[in-house]
């Protein structure tokens, strides 16, 4: 039995990472999706797309998806583009966002246009 079954921080992820047909557990969502695709065929794979909070990075045919499993806990995984429901999130427009007094810079030009404020 994998160690992950006794780890309370990923308890909510166990069912998504376990094959419903054979009961095989996978350490990552990507591995579980690949296994389900080979065992159950292409039909079941379409219904089981990952809905990320945001896409952190892109490379070749993969996306680094930030996924929220439980309140206050996020995880990032590299997934194939076919495994991700890309219309489930909105692209944020480039802007400067202030959260708790800290500036989060999403567009360098807009940030440089703003006057400095005394903190």
Describe this protein with a few key phrases.
119 residues, alpha+beta, three-stranded antiparallel sheet, 5 strands
Summarize the structure.
The chain has 119 residues and is α+β, with helices and mostly antiparallel strands. It has three helices and five strands, in the order ααβββββα.
Structural account:
It is a single chain. The protein is an alpha+beta fold. It folds into two domains: about 1-45; about 45-90. The chain is built from three helices and five strands, in the order H-H-E-E-E-E-E-H. The strands form two sheets. The protein has a three-stranded antiparallel beta sheet, with no helix packed on it. The radius of gyration is 19 Å and the shape is elongated. The protein starts with about 30 loop residues before the first helix and ends in a 6-residue tail after the last helix. The model is unreliable at about 90-95 (pLDDT under 50).
Arrangement of strands in the largest sheet: 1-2-3
Radius of gyration: 19 Å
Look at the helices and sheets and give the structural class: alpha+beta
Q: Got a strand count?
A: 5
Largest sheet, described in full? 3 strands, antiparallel
User: What number of domains?
Assistant: 2
Terminal CA distance: 53 Å
**Poorly predicted runs:** 90-96
Q: Give me the number of helical elements.
A: 3
């Amino acid at each position: 039995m994998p160690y992950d079954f006794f780890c309370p921080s990923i308890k909510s992820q166990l069912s998504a990472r376990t094959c419903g047909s054979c009961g095989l557990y996978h350490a990552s969502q990507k591995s579980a999706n690949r296994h389900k695709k080979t065992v159950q065929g292409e039909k079941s794979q379409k219904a089981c797309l990952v809905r990320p909070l945001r896409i952190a990075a892109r490379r070749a045919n993969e996306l680094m998806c930030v996924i929220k499993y439980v309140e206050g806990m996020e995880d990032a995984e590299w997934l194939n583009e076919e495994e991700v429901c890309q219309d489930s999130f909105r692209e944020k427009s480039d802007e400067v966002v202030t959260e708790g007094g800290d500036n989060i810079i999403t567009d360098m030009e807009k940030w440089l246009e703003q006057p400095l404020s005394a903190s």
